[in-house]
Amino acid sequence: MNFQKFANSRYGVQASMWLGEHLSPARAEKLSWFIARQLARHKTWAMPRAVRLNQWMISGRTLRGEELQRATEAVFAHTGRCVSDLYRVLRSPEAIKRSVSLDSFLSRWIEISRQKRGIFVVAPHMSNFDLVLQAAAWHGLDITALAYGQPTSGYDLQNEMRRRAGVKIVLARSREDEDQVIEILRRGGMVVTGIDRPIRRKRHTLHFFGHPAPLPAGHIRMALAADAEIMVAAPYLDENTGLYGVEISEPFDLIRSNDPHHTLVRNAERALSIMETFIRRRPHQWLMFYPVWPQFLDEVDQL
Fold it and tell me: Are 109 and 69 contained in the same domain?
């Protein structure tokens, strides 16, 4: 069964929207945990297999048996929580803003924006990424999101929701799209993108959690071309307050050298190193459903 294909389709997103709108938080949580346990049992399905791998790798390859099973379940349960929380408030900008605590981020962003310099915000797929993104846009931030260039019908629907909140969307499909991002950054704008989704048949790899992974570095190339800074951001759920927030790093300038490949790798791995810290704090909130280290899939299958 290709659950991942269904979840990423328009039908999957629409089903999630309906459940988010009609289920109480308590019922949504029960349903999330039920689905999480069922999914985690199917270790050969693509999505649970990827989550098992990713959780094992970020644990330093220490998780085994029931611990790895519980970690996998926790990722799927948190996904359900994020989906239900997002779609419960989706039709109300004020409710979206109340669901996310952005005071510290907004005040820091005001300070950064005074420099009138472009900034590329790079993020892992942590927690309620879309809710935090839309809340920031409803608060008035001028945001451009660089999105996956070959979206499924479900991704198309998600991009429509982002646009309604005021987020500008650029699909990463061509050099022209990269040039558009570079121009936005040169004008002092903010561009946001995820950098932890693996790329098939990628020629070069980056080290992430100590091991090679086929992750993108295009954001570094664009930031270099625009003389922009990089800032790492990670959405999260505060379990005590029930509110979502975002952790951010200090913006940093890119290091340049005479070797273009070395420049890309060094700066990309610097951002990934910061991202590792954010993920380690809340491993079950890292919602990455593709195998980031595919070379270890056979090994984790034996656990």
Answer: no
- Cα separation of 245 and 99, whole Å? 9
Domain that holds residue 98: 93-282
- Domain identity same for 21 and 76: yes
| Domain count along the chain | 2
Taking the CB of residue 197, how many other CB atoms lie within 10 A of it?
16
Same domain, 206 and 142: yes
- Count of residues making up the chain: 303
Residues 73 and 173 in one domain: no
β 168-171/143-147 pair status:
parallel
pLDDT tens track for 208-258: 999 999 999 999 999 999 999 999 999 999 999 999 999 999 999 999 999
In whole numbers, what is the pLDDT of the chain averaged over residues? 91
Whether 177 and 202 share a structural domain: yes
Which candidate, 210, 191, 172, 235, places its Cα nearest to that of 292? 210
Do 190 and 264 lie in one domain? The reply is: yes
Beta strands 190-194 and 168-171 are: unpaired
201: alpha, beta or left, given left = phi > 0 and alpha = psi -120 to 50? left
User: Are the beta carbons of 231 and 119 closer than 8 angstroms?
Assistant: yes
pLDDT tens-digit series, residues 35-59: 999 999 999 999 999 999 999 999 9
Using 50, 70 and 90 to split pLDDT, how confident is the model at 22?
confident
How far is C-alpha 104 from the chain's CA centre? 20
Instruction: Tell me which of 13-17, 84-88, 113-117, 250-254 is least confident.
Output: 13-17
